[in-house]
């Protein structure tokens, strides 16, 4: 999930957020800007959880990069790119619909994650009540916003927003399915989890290294 979580931070900073002058002219953009600032720090909770879980280990930077950019995690990377592409030329109301769809996915996930504890008995910060409460209390969800700030859409705008919502949910469905398949394919409840994870990382790293001569040969044959 790391590529998506970190990538979502960049989506908020560099795609969903616009300049203040643009936000002053567009109430929906002003709401989106405020929302992106509320989301700014959530990724730090994930890193805190990883530290507490003992996920930090000595691994060369090149190997860590091979793991994160492996085929196994392509859906997490593609999800960010596809969301960015959808939002790039979309009108503000359609981007707003996308962000609200992402929020619906988030609140569903974190509703079911409440109570997940670390080895020391403390609850996770990212996958826990802390994150759920942050998602549930976003200003974009307040009754005041719905009653006073959201414009009415005509039929064409409503249809475009619906297509954005449907596409966003489809992308997240593909992503969550890929995460489940990865977990099922790489879990061995009868073995030590540390060694099981090590074997998974070793496989990813070796697969990446095996691509090098093949890719060089393909590049050479192109000339």
Structure characterization notes:
This protein is mostly helical. It has eleven helices and no strands. Helix 7 runs parallel beside helix 10. It is globular. The mean pLDDT is 86.
**Individual helix count:** 11
How far from one another are the termini? 38 Å
Helix-strand makeup class: mainly alpha
| Overall helicity | over 70%
Taken in chain order, the helices and strands follow as HHHHHHHHHHH
Please give a handful of descriptors for the protein shown.
mainly alpha, single chain, globular, 223 residues
Write a short abstract of this structure:
With 223 residues, the protein is mainly alpha-helical. It has helices at residues 2-16, 20-25, 27-38, 42-52, 61-68, 74-88, 92-113, 129-136, 143-148, 155-185, 193-221.
In terms of topology, how is this protein built?
Layout: H1 2-16, H2 20-25, H3 27-38, H4 42-52, H5 61-68, H6 74-88, H7 92-113, H8 129-136, H9 143-148, H10 155-185, H11 193-221
Helix pairs in contact: 1-3, 1-6, 5-11, 6-10, 7-8, 7-10
């Amino acid at each position: 999930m790391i590529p998506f979580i970190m990538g979502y931070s960049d989506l908020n900073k560099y795609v969903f957020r616009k300049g203040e002058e643009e936000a002053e002219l567009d109430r929906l953009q002003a709401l989106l800007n405020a929302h992106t600032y509320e989301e700014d720090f959530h990724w730090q909770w994930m890193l805190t959880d990883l530290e507490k879980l003992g996920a930090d280990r000595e691994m060369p930077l090149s190997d860590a990069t091979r793991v994160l950019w492996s085929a196994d995690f392509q859906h997490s990377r593609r999800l960010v790119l596809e969301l960015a592409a959808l939002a790039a030329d979309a009108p503000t109301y359609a981007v707003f619909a996308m962000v609200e769809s992402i929020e619906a996915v988030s609140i569903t996930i974190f509703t079911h994650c409440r109570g997940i504890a670390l080895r020391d008995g403390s609850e996770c910060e990212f996958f826990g009540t802390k994150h759920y409460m942050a998602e549930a209390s976003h200003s974009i969800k307040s009754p005041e916003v719905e009653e006073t700030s959201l414009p009415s859409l005509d039929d064409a705008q409503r249809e475009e927003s619906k297509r954005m919502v449907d596409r966003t949910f489809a992308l997240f469905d593909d992503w969550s399915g890929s995460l489940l398949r990865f977990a099922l394919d790489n879990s061995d409840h009868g073995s030590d989890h540390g060694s099981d994870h090590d074997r998974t990382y070793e496989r990813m790293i070796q697969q990446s290294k095996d691509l090098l001569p093949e890719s060089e040969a393909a590049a050479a044959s192109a000339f």
